[in-house]
Amino acid sequence: MARRARTPTADAPEHASLDGLLASREIVVACGPGGVGKTTTAAAAAAMAAARLGGKVLVLTIDPARRLANALGLEGIGNAERRVPDEAFTSAGVTPMGQLWAAMLDTKQSWDDLIARHAPDRRTRDDILANPLYRNISGRFVQSHDYIAMERLYEIHAEGSYDLIVVDTPPTRNALDFLDAPERMADFFSSRLLRWLIVPYRSRLVNLASRPFYQVADRILGTQFLQDISEFFILFQTMYDGFIERANAVKRLLADRRTSFVVVSTLEAVPLREAEFFARALLDRHLHLGAIVLNKVLPAYLRDPAAASVAEALRDRSEALADAVGDALGDAAPEQVARVLHTVGQSFLDYRVVAQREAEQRAELASVPEALVSVPYFETDVYDLAGLLRLGERLWGGT
Amino acid sequence: MVPLIDRRLVFVTGKGGVGKTTVAVALALLASSQGRRTLVCEVDAKGDVAAYLECGPTQFAERQVGPNLWAMSMDTEASLREYLRLNLRIPMVGRIGPLARAFDFVATAAPGVREILTVGKLCYEVREHHYDLVVADASATGHIVGQLAAPQAINELVRVGLIRSQTDWMLDILSDPSQTGLAVVTTPEEMPVNETMELVERVRKETTVDVAAVIVNRVLPELFGRSEEEVFERLCAPAATAALRRALSGDPRPVLDAARLAVTLRRTRAGHLDRLRAGVDPAVPMLYLPYLFTRSHGVRSVRQVAAHLGEELAV
């Protein structure tokens, strides 16, 4: 993939659309740093795809804001996919060509489903589900979240009932965790240490190779806990092959040409640095980076030099200007008008500093994919389908 | 309630993107400028603390980066090595085979091991009085409860063994509100406010750590009072805008548009701020930091944040 195919300037007309991507892929993964509107962007892209492209579109989200969840009809918990009613579209003034479905990821439920699928028999399944260590892992274990999101994506894709799945990635410690999760899961189950641990406890003591490890582990963790671990992995061993195979399949799907990634960010320094790192990592892994979406971009007029001169005049000559416009303002006190003019000028100049800094950041973006999409600062929060579609318009080309 | 700055161990958390690291570094700068020996530790070693301090990369070994100020980044494997060296007196740690893989395995299998090695190292620095204040740029809101609750979780899972006996003194430090506190950073926006309210509840229910403050970052300035807003509306009417244009010999509309944008942004955020105030126990102090209209993100802007934090804490 060509890197830096062109140098974007702050005002360059961008290849400002996701429609080509959404029309040609089966899976679009929204990823990037936290707090930049990833979930909303994924939902908006899916809503637009359902409205304009037709077919069945699913947005799989991890942790939507409550109002957004309500807008998508995701009030309950659990893994069930629900259809967003057509009435929600029509009341937003849109007749959808296709169907929009939404689902939330329930980590615990997904793990239980996975166990049920891979367990050789009912007894093993029940033993695992009841194991305290398993309950801990599936409930609290952070990385399990990353793996299970990709696993669930694979499952839904394999069922084949959706034309397009837009998935929102979990907020991770490290933006890449979810990409590496399938591989790590495979590594984990094939590690030699795992084999050491699943040797029944008594015979371990005569195993010279592993003895020092257990001596230390015993002192740190305690015998009881080691036995719990051991039991858990003996049960898990029965599902070993299924797991490895599955993890590899998930990995292949992500690298497949039917899948594309969209990196979402804002132009704030820290998120943008993380987003760039992410974009590079995708390219390094030969995954398809379809677009970068920049959210909350301040309007371009803030960088207009003529407007800046006007703002400076308002700030510095507010009293004289207040006199000059006094007649048009009726009975307003001149001092008050002067204060308002001064504030208006100062506020423009304040925001201009930020807008310029952000334009600079954008110009420095090192790897630019085929599409770089800017979404303006929305003055109010997006919390219903109409809002999602309004945002979606900005992701769409030719509007 | 003991003020945030007078505690000995402060965990700073917040949703991604709200300025958690900035506030943690600002708090450390503020305390060190008051003459307190301060250690700032980046728990998710991404290099942000080093970037904000402009001090070069940080490592597990603490390094002095300014007057009364030390910085480090957490490395759980290094923490384990240090622990083994200090507590178990195992001379041949190097000989127990691939410690890295063994550690990876145990940490992956046993939830809480990574967390306890992180929290344990911080508590250790507090217990040994190496510093007057330890500031942890801790995990984001999604993971902080797991981190803070790790000592109890380990207590439940591991019934005997050395780790178990180690959790008692950690819990003593963590549970003492005169020593340890959690600062939750947020911005007046929808998701950060939701997460903050949920987090404060969860921390109270699931951990023994005291919520010492909610710090609202990037509060936008109020442009107009009510009567001024009326004047502004009149200015936007065509006749007034035309008069202004003649007097300025330039188009005032972009400037008026920008003011309107500033007013609406502020208004949307004010709504979230109200929600936050109503949703968090009034006993938890709430501190406000202004949005900074600055050019850069380096140590200069962190110093500005530290100055505002100082005003809010009245130090």
CATH class of chain B: Alpha Beta
Q: For the largest interface in this structure, which chains are involved and how many residues does each contribute?
A: A-B, 86 and 81 residues
Give the name of the CATH superfamily of the largest domain in chain A: P-loop containing nucleotide triphosphate hydrolases
Class of secondary structure makeup of chain B: alpha/beta
Give the total of domains of chain B. 1
By CATH, the architecture of chain B is named: 3-Layer(aba) Sandwich
CATH topology of chain B: Rossmann fold
Give the biggest beta sheet of chain A.
Answer: 8 strands, mixed
Helix- and strand-based class of chain A?
Answer: alpha/beta
Radius of gyration of chain B: 23 Å
**What is the global morphology of chain B?**
elongated
What is the CA-CA span between the terminal residues of chain B? 16 Å
Could you characterize the architecture of this molecule?
The complex is a heterodimer of chains A (399) and B (315). Chain A is 56% helix and 12% strand. Chain A has 399 residues and is an alpha/beta fold. In chain A, helix 15 (269-284) links the parallel strand 6 and strand 7. In chain A, helix 9 packs antiparallel against helix 14 (240-255), helix 12 crosses helix 13 (223-237) and helix 17 crosses helix 18 (334-363). Chain A is elongated, with a radius of gyration of 27 Å. In chain A, 48% of the residues are buried. Chain B is an alpha/beta fold and 315 residues long. Chain B has one domain (4-221, 283-313): P-loop containing nucleotide triphosphate hydrolases (Rossmann fold), CATH 3.40.50.300. Chain B contains 12 helices and 8 strands. Chain B has an 8-stranded mixed sheet, sandwiched between helices. At the A-B interface, helix 7, helix 10, helix 12, helix 13 and helix 15 of A face helix 4, helix 6, helix 7, helix 8 and helix 9 of B.
